[in-house]
Amino acid sequence: MNASPDGTPDGSPAPTPAFGPSRRIAAWGVHLYTALGLACAARMAILIAVGGRLDLTHAFLWMLAACFIDGTDGFLARRVGVKEVLPGFDGRKLDDIVDFQTYTSLPLLLLWRAHVLPAGYEGWLLFPLLASAYGFCQSEAKTGDGYFLGFPSYWNVVAFYLVELQIGPWPALALIILFATLTFVPTKYLYPSQGGPFSALMLTGGAVYIVLMLAILLGWQWNRQAMIWLSLSYPLSYLAASWIVTISGSRPVRR
Hints:
By secondary structure, the chain is mainly alpha-helical. It has helices at residues 21-50, 53-80, 82-85, 91-113, 126-137, 155-165, 169-182, 199-217, 224-231, 233-247, and strands spanning 147-149, 188-190.
C-alpha cells in the first residue's frame, strides 16, 4: 500500500499531535497576554476622551505598555508553540486587532484631541487611518525575509513627537501626509526581532529607548525637553537604517 505525502496510508490528514493540559494552558496564557493590549487600548481611550495635558501624557504611557506587550508576545508564542498547540485560534489576527487600535486609531484620535493640526484640517487624519488599514491588510506587509513593507504604522511614535515637540500645525500636517504616503511605497523597514541587518543594534537601542521614554513619561527629574530630543535619535536611526537597507540593493517585493 502506498503512503500519501503526509505519511498516512489512506490519504487522510495526519492526526493532530496531542498536547497536555499545561501546554494548552500556557498557549492560552500567551494569547491572553496579547489581549492585554486591548486593556491598554481601553485605558488610552478613556484618557484621550478626558483630554487634559496630563491625561494625554498618561495615554502615551499606556501606548508604551502596549508596545512592550507587542514586542514580547511573539517570543513567548514561539517558545510555547501556540500555532501547533491551538491551531484553531489565529493569534496573528488577535495581534492585528490590538495593534491597529494601539498603533493607529487611538494615536490618531490623540492627535485630534491635542489639536495638533491646523484648524479645519483635522479631516486629513482619515488619510493615515485608511493608509494604515491598507497596510495591515496586505499579504506582504511582513516580508518572507523579515522586514515590514511600507511604513509600518508607527503612528504612536509620530503622535508622541508631534505633541511633545510642538513643531507647528502646518509642519505636523506635512509629516502626517508624508508618513501616510510612505505606507504605499514598497520600501523595506527593519523588523529587529526577525533578525537581519542592524537587528542587534536596533534591539539594544530599543531597550535604551524604552527606559528613556519611561523617564520622560514618568516625569523623572531631568531636562524633559532635552530628553525628548535625545530619544528622537532612535526612531530617526531606525528610518535611516531601513532606507539604507532598501537603497543598498535588497530589492523589496512589489505589492
